[in-house]
Each structure stands twice: as structure tokens, then as C-alpha cells.
Amino acid sequence: LIEEMNQLVGLPLPVSYQKERDGDIKYSLSDSSALKGLGFSPVYSIREGLQKYLKFTHNTQNR
């Protein structure tokens, strides 16, 4: 996500890795194959979703 966001904003966004905390999820994977089996398909790609998010935040911060 951060690499995609860097490309969209045209700046290297800072990433700060911290020591893990109790209760943090160490590994997380996403598998949408079960949803696809039910006929679901995403409306937006990750890139399109991030573009819409950036546009939304820009519009709401400039009110």
C-alpha cells in the first residue's frame, strides 16, 4: 500500500517501524477466493481506491 501511495502522491512517504506490542497480529494474509466463489468482484482496484481516498480527503480538508 505504501509503495502505491508513494507513486500516487509523488513523494516518498516516511515509514516508521516500531517494536511490536502485545496483541499485535504478527502475520496477516487476505484471500478473497471464497468471495469470488460467491460472485463477488471488487468495484475498485487498490490504486483506484487510494485515488478516491486522496480526492475525498483533499476535498473535505479544503472546506
What proportion of the residues is helical, as a percent range? Answer: 40-55%
As residue ranges, the low-confidence spans are none
Strand content: under 5%
Q: Number of DSSP helices? A: 3
The class by helix and strand makeup works out as mainly alpha
Mean pLDDT: 90
Order of helices and strands: HHH
In terms of quaternary structure, the protein is single chain
Rg from Cα: 16 Å
- The count of β-strands is 0
The major pleated sheet works out as: none
Ends: how far apart? Answer: 27 Å
General shape = flat
Helix-strand layout with pairing:
Layout: H1 2-9, H2 33-37, H3 46-61
Short descriptors:
flat; 63 residues; mainly alpha; 46% helix
Q: Can you give a write-up of this model?
A:
This protein is mainly α and 63 residues long. Helices cover 46% and strands 0% of the residues. It starts with a helix and ends with a helix. It has a domain of 31 residues. The model has no long low-confidence stretch (mean pLDDT 90).
